[in-house]
Amino acid sequence: MASRIVSGSEPLEFSRALDALRGVRLRPEVRLTEVPAPGRIAPYAVALTGDVVGRDDEDLASGRFVLLHDPSAPEPWGGQWRAVTFARAELEPEFASDPLLGEVGWSWLTDALDDAGVSYTNEAGTVTRVVSESFAGLADRPATVEIEVRASWTPLGDAVAAHLRAWTDVLCTIAGLPPLPEGVVALPGPRR
């Protein structure tokens, strides 16, 4: 995993965070890939895309996790770190009219962070449902419903890997995977 570093040398805190992210253990359904990090938000950043893949290599959910580091601790952040995330998955059509979908989607994030036992502050975000209906020459396509959870928060302490794990738990939740009980490790699927 490479990171984008604007200045000549990275601070020790950022280097440790990269090591922690490299060592994170995730469910076997989750695939992480490094992508270019944003260039103007913070002096140091790392960005990862995440995909939850089903048994037949079907994409169940996707998203992006960006960890920003600014030693000057920008006031809106309330700290030196900022996690900026996005998660998206297709849902069953009956969720299109559920008035609680936004609240439930947001609770998936806060519950994942709380379950991970991490400290955070200055959280913000949106939950969006996207309903697509096709007409005329595309009328034979069924309606689809997607949920998008966009969020940012300031991780407190140095447990950045736990924040990444919590975000991947959100990806798995919106993908429809059942949570793993404490201490249980998912077995990898069959090798190809």
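That was protein one. Protein two is written in the same sequence-then-structure order:
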Amino acid sequence: MKNNTKVFIIDTSAVLSGKPINIENAKLVTTSLVQNELKPGGKDYKIFQFLKEKGLIVMAPSNESIETINKTSNNTGDKNRLSDADKEILALALDINKDKKEAIILTDDYSIQNIANVLKIKYQNISQPGITKKFKWTYQCSGCCKKFKENINICPICGASIKNIISSKKLINKK
């Protein structure tokens, strides 16, 4: 891939949307975990196979970038909202950006968009409106309202269940 080439990273939601993906004048990449999320023989799998025939490349991100995504998602509270495929998509974008190429993630996943915004990775929504606020999540007991940094199932104080809540939000300045 040449420098200054736009690289579109295909998330599962981009394939599931059924919307056409412009494959001219751009490189398309994804990860094997995205491929694994599609059922063989289904319509979405056939769309994915068509994209592969037209040049979609399946790549693996570096361990270093996966670790960066894990740390960032832990800081924002998105860690448990991201699948392994989501983490790989974000890590792949970091790797491509390190190579001085412009990586743009095609996704409707709000947690991917939230992490991408934090890491200054470009993204485009497909079918859904994109995020307008950057969230930071935390965990709170539904009984005594104690807040926790880590996700646990049951409150050690009162025994009630723990829920995921927004601890802060900021408007995103879109260019």
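The mean pLDDT is 84. Keep this in mind for the problem set.
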